[in-house]
Amino acid sequence: GGLLDQLGFEDGKFTRKRTIVHAVNDVSFEIQKGETLSVVGESGCGKSTLARTVVGLYEPTGGQIFYRGERVDNKSGSQRKKFRTAAQMIFQDPYASLNPRMKVAQILEEPVRFHFPEFSDAEVKQRVADVMEQVGINPVWGARYPHEFSGGQRQRISIARALVLKPEFIVADEPISALDVSIQAQVLNLMMDLQRDHNLTYLFISHDLSVVQHISNRVAVMYLGSLCELADAKELFANPQHPYTKALLSAIPRIGKKGFSHIKLSGDVPTPINLPSGCVFHGRCRLANQRCVNEVPHAITLDSGTICACHAVQEGRSTTMPA
Ligand code: SF4
Ligand code: MG
């Protein structure tokens, strides 16, 4: 419960030119205040589209997004304006996401001036200085341009820009994967500290399962825009159900040692424009049968609380994957 008590997303379809791209098909979930829900999957699975749609950067052509129980995906929604400040995004690439022609202080002041026109100049500058300190960037450096900072510092500035409106919900799309490995942990730890200090809710998009295991309360696994499995993080890593989840987990060496053998997936991820029939994973799943080819598996909730969309799981067939 709490402030951000409901954020749901259902059945999104997106128009890119004239082609319907089934970027986030049959995905529906809620995020609780203060939790970290991670979304994992290979590139092209619809994670970034989902992230951008949730914060309103993409318009869903179908589906609904709720915030505090009210829709925010249509212009008439009374919570929409609130949601535009309450939900902020951190992008993968801190080089591309900061305007190179603006000084850092300007980059951080702009959204505050836009969303809080009643603030005095001193109040705006104070808000920006506070947030720079919170992310470990000396406020006097606000007079510098983004290119004068390292990649890690730039991502701290991006985080500051997300925080400057005092949001309660942050969507972070691969926030550390463009950074040097040596500074990834620092930025991740900063994000965790900020979450604790401000009771932030995170939707964390990642392809890195060892990071996800470290930070998540719950994990959603996506493949080709479809939700495969959604589970408590501990449960997902101890007891994966969906064949795709098992294949992903088997690729983590640390987990592989604990009795999962490495499962090799055959074939490439198909294009999201021509989705496979039935289960979108069937072309790469060694457990696929005729039903999997014909029929879309619907998500069901198992006794453990795990949500899983797989015929084999539903039928009680063994989903132990041949290595
Ligand atoms: Fe594999 Fe069939 Fe389950 Fe899809 S529904 S993951 S093809 S067993
Ligand atoms: Mg992406």
TrEMBL record:
Keywords from the named record: ATP-binding, Nucleotide-binding, Transport
The keyword ATP-binding is assigned to this record: yes
Pfam families per UniProt: ABC_tran (PF00005), oligo_HPY (PF08352)
Chain ranges of the ABC transporter domain: 7-249
GO molecular function, a single term: ATP binding
Top-rank taxon, per record: Bacteria
Annotated SMART domains: AAA
Family in the record: Belongs to the ABC transporter superfamily.
Record-given protein name: ABC transporter ATP-binding protein
Organism: Halodesulfovibrio aestuarii
Lineage: Bacteria, Pseudomonadati, Thermodesulfobacteriota, Desulfovibrionia, Desulfovibrionales
